[in-house]
Structures
1.
Amino acid sequence: MTSRVAGLPLALVLAGSLALTACAGGGEKKVTDDQSPEEVLSAAATTLKEAEGVNLTLSTTDLPEGINGITKAAGVATNAPAFEGTITVVFAGQSVEVPVVAVDGVVHAVLPFTDGAYQDIDPGDYGAPDPASLISAESGFSSLLGVTTDLEEGESVRGGADNDEVLTTFTGTVPGAAMKKVIPSSAGKTFDAEYLVSDDGELRQAVLTGVFYPKSEAMTYTVDFADYGTSKDIVAP
């Protein structure tokens, strides 16, 4: 692996690797020195879309002012597809955390200022995608890896609970049409992408920067993936 620094600063990569790999362990090494960035990301995409489930966290600290949109989603995403967790949205100037269960093509949420019962919602009304689709092969984050262009490999660092893993940064450009399949509100023509991939072929982090909402400035979403193989039977409330 090259030692050239690209993408995430080394300190951030180290911090992220320690936080994100503690549960992953030192599995069989699947990423080798002779693989191209395209081959590494293709393998990582396959690993993510074939995972039974993962713990997923999407977050931003720079949602443009005046935009109705998502600032955080955290929960378990499975290949059913399904999702159970919480989504934090800014709507009409207020930030609210909403419990969400998405399964069988329906998104159920406990809306603020209601009786606490789940209601069927359209996540697009809040600038959010269907969270059940976030790891799907067609419209999930794994779908971005195969269409990322201008790929460059960056720093490789040690990480994991016992410092027994190698994590490598890859940078590139995602077409706007591909991003729109994942986050429907996306309005940019292209997006900058930084991926952190473990030596056992797991995508651990994606840092995506561009215009995610019409008539707004560029911003960054960071998506963390942990606990590959997480199993959870998610059912409608």
2.
Amino acid sequence: MTTPPHRSDHRVRLPRDARRATLLEAALAAFSENGYHATSMDDIAERAGVSKPVLYQHFDSKLELYLALAARVADDVVATITRSLDSTSDNGARIAACARAYFEFVDRPASGYRLVFASDMGADPAVAAILDDARSRCAEAIGRVLRDQTALGWTECVLLGTTLVGMVQSAARQWFEGGSSIPLPEAAELVTTLAWRGIAHYPQVDDQPPS
């Protein structure tokens, strides 16, 4: 008689980073579906297919889990803006790419935008610090481009970068919460036109007379 193959009852153990990523994905889905306050650690563990003790091995509390998720979403926003800035050397196209990419991020359900950037959790000091840091990094990324392309000083470039970030962020949030009645390409183009008409008035480095 043939001996049946041995079957292990042990679950496959993922590397710690892979397990953490799986838990964050489960948390994003659970929080997005039910909201932060109505979601329990049990809900997240069940959705991730792990026991609650395993979940607590990675995150000490629901808030710590949310903060890790918020940091990841914030990093995604910064990476989105940075990629857009690096996608072309044409400044008008850069602004268009940033606006379009951010609107697409806001519009993508799995991005975590609603959960992190349009949530009452922003009132928590730790969450607010993550959001402020993301805005600052985006503003500085834009500021570096302005510094290289204009005769403005670093402080002025960061101020303009902060203004551009705030404008795009506010417009995208209004567009999203207003039901996205304007098609995304048109909404992004409206913001791009306004931003570029302002930025284009600052003299380029090549336009400066020799000293």
3.
Amino acid sequence: MSLAFFNGKYMPLNEVAISPFDRGFLFGDSIYEVIPVYSGKMLEGELHLQRLLSGLSAVGIESPYSLLEWRGLITNIIIGAEATQMIYIQVTRGVEESRNHRFPIKALPSVLIFATPFTSPVDLSYPGCFATLQTDKRWQNCHIKATSLLANVMAYRQLYLEGKPQDEALFIRNGYVVEAASSNLFMVKDKVIYTPPIDNILPGVTRHIILQIAKKLHYQVHEIAPDANTLEKADEVWVSNSIEELKPIIKIDDHCIGSGKPGEVWREFWLHYQSKKWDGYEV
């Protein structure tokens, strides 16, 4: 059983017991972070932890640990025998004596950290994914990595009910496609890369790495959100996150993207991403 850190103590993950009065459980009043680990090393761990601290600050939860202390806690949780794993961190506003919406809150933050092995489903043999456009029904602070993810879950439920459980949901807001239900969005047209700006979307760390790779490879990048018609006419479309990494989209609704197969630009970026995560080279 994996080791967990919970409220100041290390214990087997199956022994973690969360109070029914924890505000993370009752209200989703909490911030989370997911950090991929390869060969015992966090990929861009500093950026992930800075995003955690920024999220806590944005919702008014005081971080119980410094950046250096967070690193130490995570190091103790990493599973030595697993080449590929993810670290999950959740910080809630804490436990009160009763369920209460109003402030002030007299509670200390609750902290949970654990590791889980994972394998990305995407490699060079990946045939590509279909996607469906959906109206963005999420709250208006999508840049905060909060655990209140019901709208994202409902988007995946809709795909499941439509018989498309492996498809992606691409969110449209004010006429523009801004991101996927758990991923950032990229589009390629005539060897130019487009991605929505970090304006009320999650500032993905994988997104950041892709932009670094684009700079290294001398690709022109525009941080612009495409409308649906423009996206459907793209040469390539990808989504990115820490677990699936770079995933190509080959069809959106009834529209085939490019050749209907993962594109050459995606392949080039995917290979550079693998070098980054395993070899730790600086892009």
